Amino acid sequence: MHSGLPSYDELHALPMPPRMHPNGFIQLELGSRKRRLHIWPETPMVTREVETPIHDHIFGFDSEVLLGRLGHFIFDAEADPAGPYHLYTAGCSAQGKVNDHLVRIDDRRYRLEQTEAIWLDAGDTYRFEPFRFHESRHEGLTATIFQIHDFEETGATRICCPIDQVPDNSAKKPFRRDGFDPEVLWAQIERVYRLIS
C-alpha cells in the first residue's frame, strides 16, 4: 500500500463520499479538499453527452500515478476568428466550493496548440502550474494521488468546448458530481486498493 494513503476502511470513515468528475474520473477527498484520490475506470463511465476534456485550473497541483498509465497533454489557447473552440468558465474556491454551471467567457473563437505530451506510469510524478490548459488520458484502470498547491482565489477555471456544441454543465445541460451510484464508485475504489496492496 502506498504510504500516503489511508486504509480502505479509513476511506469509508471520511466525511466526503466519492463523486464523479465531468471528465470521467472518480474523485475522493483524502481528509482534505486539497488532497484527493483520482481513479479512471478501465471501462470509461459515460458522464456527459458533450466532452470538454481540455481545461485549466486556478491552482497548481502535484500528481503521483499509483496504478495504470496516465497521459498528460498541455495546450496553448489563442484567440483566432477561425478557431474551433469557445471558452467557458466555472467557479471554484480553496474551500472546495465548486460551481459546475459553465458560462461562455466571450464571443471570440479560440484555437489550441498542443505544446507537450507525456505518459506516466505507476511511481511517476509530475507538477503542473495554474492557468495552463491540459487534458488527461488514461490506459487501463488508472489511479493517482492529486495534491493542490498555489491556489488563486480570484481566478476561474476555463473549459474549451467545440463552437457547435453546448457543454453539459451549462444552464441547458446540468451536470451533478454526486449524481452517480456510490456503490459503483466504491467498487472501482476497492478494485484499485486490491491491486496496489
Low-confidence stretches: 93-97
CATH level-3 fold name: Jelly Rolls
CATH architecture descriptor name: Sandwich
How far apart, in Å, are the first and last alpha carbons?
Answer: 4 Å
Oligomer: single chain
Radius of gyration: 17 Å
Share of residues in helices: 10-25%
Number of domains: 1
Please give a structural write-up:
The chain has a single domain, classed as Jelly Rolls. It has 2 helices and 10 strands. It is globular and about 50 Å long. Helix content is about 10%, strand content about 45%. It is mainly beta. The model is unreliable at about 95 (pLDDT under 50).
Q: Brief overview, please?
A:
With 197 residues, the chain is mainly β.
